[in-house]
Amino acid sequence: MNSPFLLPSSVCHVHGTEPGPRVVVFGGTHGDETMGVQVVHNILEALGSPEGAPTGQITSTFVKGDLFLGIGNPEAVALGKRSVSGIRDLNRCFHETFFSSPEALRIPDQQRAAELKDLLASADYFFDLHSVTAKETIPFVGLTTFSPRHAEVCRSIPVHHILDVQAILGQDVGLAIAELTQTPTTCSWVNRHGGVGLAYEMGYQEDAASVPSATAVIVNLLVKVGVVHGRLREILKVDREQIDSVPDQRVYRLVHCERNRFHGFHYAHPRYTQSFASVKAGELIGQYEDGEKVCATHEGLLAFPAGEQTLTNNQSLFYLAVPVS
Ligand SMILES: [Zn+2]
Predict the structure, then answer these.
(1) Percentages helix, strand, coil for the chain, rounded to the nearest 5?
(2) Cα of 2 to ligand 1 centre, how many Å?
(3) Which segments within 205-295 are labelled E, that is strand?
């Protein structure tokens, strides 16, 4: 199928030789999370893109439909930073308010979002690869709505935790709460245009060992949604056992964002920088240099904790999640 828009830069359009869905996979939506870029590179190489380069158009007999593999924010990846501007990262740019604001569109990350928005809006499925700054972490799925179609896709992903971030995740970018019916994330944009979008958080962002396992997860997902043939698994040596043994999954939703006051915060215990540490309401999580205590607002799990090394620039210290009953 021809694209109704220009192919964005740093995205490769892999045309299939049979009809199928339209699927987009990105790594590097956050420029300091380079393991997802490796996954995109590995899959593109297997599909025949020269040196796995995420650019141009190729045709592959492994593909059914249209598969787009690319780098979310290539300029930020080149800088090794979460965003180009430091004002707003790409995963906070996908909101109508920003696309219609000339002032917002002066931000380089917002310009990249504008380049990508039509591609993402046209996707049947979108998988965004992320990794986290905290060392002690396990892979999980983040999404902004948990529809039956999302649930179906999640059954093929070997994670225990599925985190519905709702609109809580967007509360750090200055949008009015009334405008935050959904987050301004890439996945939310896909969901709002009729596709199924989710973020696969593949683990600690310096852990190269996460690349082969995340490659396997994504290839199995691509087979599951019908955009690639199962024989791609053989080329990439992907074990299909992985999806036949998906562990017990539980869905959680974010209920609170603890904003960072940037005043020398320290965790009360290292366990709080592990993902999904369980906490009781009122439990002391840490303290600022001026003595202000930060306690858990709910009984539940800590999500997206800022690692010790990112406490000086993360807008949030952590989020709190509760199980969906
Ligand atoms: Zn990320």
Answers:
(1) 30, 30, 40
(2) 30
(3) 250-259, 266-267, 278-279, 284-287, 293-295
**Separation CA 128–CA 106 (nearest Å):** 24
Distance in Å, CA 91 to ligand 1 centroid: 8
Q: Quote the ligand 1 centre to 317 CA distance (angstroms).
A: 15
Give the residue range(s) of CATH 3.40.630.10 domains in the chain.
Answer: 11-248
pLDDT tens sequence across 301-322? 999 888 887 888 888 899 999 9
Residue from 30, 167, 26, 163 nearest 95 by CA: 167
The strand pair at 266-267 and 250-259 is best described as unpaired
Least Cα distance to 93 among 11, 168, 189 occurs for: 189
What is the C-alpha separation between 225 and 196, in angstroms, rounded? Answer: 10
CA of residue 29 to ligand 1 center, whole Å: 6
pTM of the predicted structure, to 2 decimals: 0.91
Calculate what percentage of the chain has a pLDDT beyond 70.
Answer: 91
How many whole angstroms from 130 Cα to the centroid of ligand 1? 4
The dotted CATH code for 255-323 is: 2.40.50.100
Q: Does domain 11-248 have CATH number 3.40.630.10?
A: yes
Cα-to-chain-centroid distance, residue 63: 23
